[in-house]
Write a structure and sequence with these properties.
380 residues, alpha/beta, Spore Coat Polysaccharide Biosynthesis Protein SpsA, Chain A, eight-stranded mixed beta sheet, four-stranded mixed beta sheet, 37% helix, binds 2-acetamido-2-deoxy-beta-D-glucopyranose
């Protein structure tokens, strides 16, 4: 058939299969040969190179194909203004009436070496917490011996001393074991320590990592209102390296429990569908010294992400902090291509220090490295 016949047939009949049937054979062949050559000489070697060098990236980029997101949370709107009385705040959340005496609050954390974060946390929560419970081990989750850093710095925390229950636990030091096993073991010990600290039914227990700091007014709201949910996750703003880089709003692991003997267990995983919006700050890798970054990268549960030893170079780490880039050269861990692409590349600086923990701003000189414009870390 000729081209003229083809356009005539197209006018008569618009099927795609017609177009294929009428394409001259030499065009099919030419197209195929070029494509085959490009695939063999360019695409395949490039693919092999990229997967070899950035295997994790390839798997994370394809994550939407092999993994599905967790069930979405039921988001609870959060109302707050310092001028509003507690009765109004409780009512806005549908939680009233306000209690005559607030619930007692227990704040329970596993400690590694985050002395500054612990200071900011405890100063923020101090007016609302009845009992501070802290457990530390002489082992990291990856079975590396570590000093008892809290014991060495305990004098700095005199302001909570009368309300402190401090416990230590010996590491199991099983080399080669999955770090999550040691982590679970330490969290179980923390569960016992809360009971030793005297927790009773109807007390509130905050379960979160040291760097997941609920805002004071959030805890105050939860301790004053009757009828709050028995278990509630806290949505925290996610920061990276300092409060200068707001990464996203998706931190959810922190939770608050109305304690029930025999039911409530310490944990750092999904407990319920309820998530109270905008309830504080989660600052990941917010360390004063580069050596703290190296320790954390080697010591905690995702050591598999340190794929190349140059990841631990001090100049590289300093450069990444200032750019808000990724320490492990990884893609965002998201479940849709839109989210992965949206979060690719460095986190831009927010230039904002509005609505941060009060103690941090009151002591801005001491904590300069956590505030905008101060990404260069001090030498030790
Ligand atoms: C860790 O602590 C336990 C219990 O106190 C102790 O028996 C053990 O020797 C310690 N190990 C190291 C490496 O410090």
């Amino acid at each position: 058939m000729t081209d003229g016949d083809y356009s005539a047939s197209k006018k008569r009949d618009d099927h795609v299969s017609d177009q294929q049937r009428h394409t001259p054979p030499h065009l099919i062949l030419g197209f195929d040969l070029r494509t085959v050559a490009v695939i063999c000489l360019v695409v395949v070697p490039a693919f092999v190179y990229v997967v070899g060098r950035h295997g994790d990236k390839a798997t994370f980029f394809l994550r939407p194909l092999w993994d599905s997101p967790q069930k979405p949370f039921n988001r609870i709107p959060h109302y707050y203004h310092p001028a509003l009385p507690m009765a109004t705040l409780c009512r806005l959340h549908g939680w009233g009436p306000t209690r005559d005496i607030p619930r007692r609050v227990f704040d329970a954390v596993l400690f590694s070496n985050e002395v500054d974060m612990l200071t900011i946390r405890w100063r923020e929560l101090q007016p609302y917490v009845s009992r501070f419970v802290l457990l530390e081990s002489n082992s990291t989750f990856t079975a590396i011996p570590k000093p008892l850093n809290f014991a060495a710095n305990r004098a700095k925390f005199g302001f909570v001393e009368p309300r402190l229950t401090y416990g230590t636990i010996g590491g199991r030091f099983r080399a080669g074991e999955n770090p999550f096993v040691e982590e679970a073991y330490q969290r179980l010990a923390l569960d016992q320590l809360i009971r030793i600290a005297g927790v009773e039914d109807d007390d509130l227990v905050i379960m979160s990592d040291v760097d997941e700091i609920p805002s004071g007014h959030t805890v105050d709201l939860l301790r004053w209102c009757n009828g709050t949910p028995p278990v509630l996750h806290l949505q925290l703003r996610n920061y990276l390296y300092s409060y200068e880089f707001l990464y996203d709003y998706d931190s959810w692991r922190a939770s608050v429990h109305v304690y029930r003997r025999g039911e409530t267990k310490y944990g750092h995983f999904r407990r319920t569908d309820l998530l109270l919006t905008d309830s504080g700050w989660h600052c990941s890798f917010c360390f004063r010294h580069i050596s703290d970054f190296v320790f954390k990268m080697k010591a905690y549960s995702h050591t598999d992400r340190v794929r190349f030893s140059h990841f631990l170079d001090r100049e590289r780490i300093q450069d990444i902090i200032c750019r808000g880039a990724n320490l492990y050269d990884m893609l965002p861990e998201e479940y849709t291509f839109r989210e992965i692409i949206g979060k690719m590349g460095p986190t831009p600086s927010s230039y904002s220090a509005v609505h941060l923990p009060a103690y941090l701003l009151e002591n801005a000189d001491e904590f300069r490295y956590l505030l905008p414009g101060n990404c260069i870390r001090e030498s030790e």
